[in-house]
Amino acid sequence: MPGFAPGVERFGTALLVGTLATAVLFTPVVALLPAALVAFVCYFFRDPDRSPPDARIVAPADGRVSVIREEGDRVRVGVFMNVTDVHVNRAPADGEVVAVTHRPGANKPAFAKDSDRNERVDIDCGDYDLSLIAGWFARRIHPYVTEGDSLRQGERVGHIDFGSRADVLLPPELGVEDVAVERGDTVRAGETVLVE
User: Fold this and answer.
1) Could you tell me what percent of the chain has a pLDDT over 70?
2) Which among 42, 77, 53, 60 is positioned nearest to 159, based on CA atoms?
């Protein structure tokens, strides 16, 4: 469906049927609650177009930068997606998908340090890695890419249902000093520059 991430039909249709049934069986006033839930689902699954700037690495998700840390000789930048953020994730840079790996795990809040052990999908793009991490309420990660796919910067790579985190493990030649954002900054997927 244009303008919406996959999944809007699954959640929205059931709620719409519930809204109509409630309006028929009870009163239109009682149907306001399920109607509000339909509106929320449509809002949550929105998928606006984005235009990547001329940059080396852009944000993979809408939300707030929650992680900037060194891991060995690499730097990880993580973006926490609140339930009100767009949850469609985008390629932070051009690349080729080397592997897509699903790892089961816990469902801790995505902004917590323990969330590193959460269920996740890791997308290895050779030069960089992208991790889609489920949160406490998010139980489904939907990657759109498979091994061998060529990615363009800002291209849609997947989405996570209802609250989560997306991390980029930067190429080894980039350090913390190259990161153009700070913890707490608000970013937009495919548009906010992480590395010039």
Assistant:
1) 81
2) 60
Q: In the chain, which residues have pLDDT < 70?
A: 1-2, 7-21, 23-24, 106-117, 136-139, 162-163
Residue recorded with tokens 């998010």: 138
Closest to 171 (Cα-Cα) out of 62, 65, 57: 57
């993979």: which residue's tokens?
60
Helices (H), the chain: 8-25, 32-44
Catalytic residue among 66, 115, 131, 164: 164
Strand segments (E) across 38-185: 57-58, 63-71, 74-81, 88-90, 95-96, 99-103, 120-124, 129-134, 141-143, 150-151, 156-160, 164-169
CATH topology of domain 57-195: Glucose Permease (Domain IIA) (2.70.70)
Q: What angle do CA 104, 105, 107 make, to 5 degrees?
A: 125
Domain boundaries, the chain: 8-44, 57-195
The pTM (predicted TM-score) of the whole model is: 0.81
Residue with tokens 């790892």: 103
Residue 164: active-site member: yes
Closest CA to 157 of 97, 105, 98, 89: 89
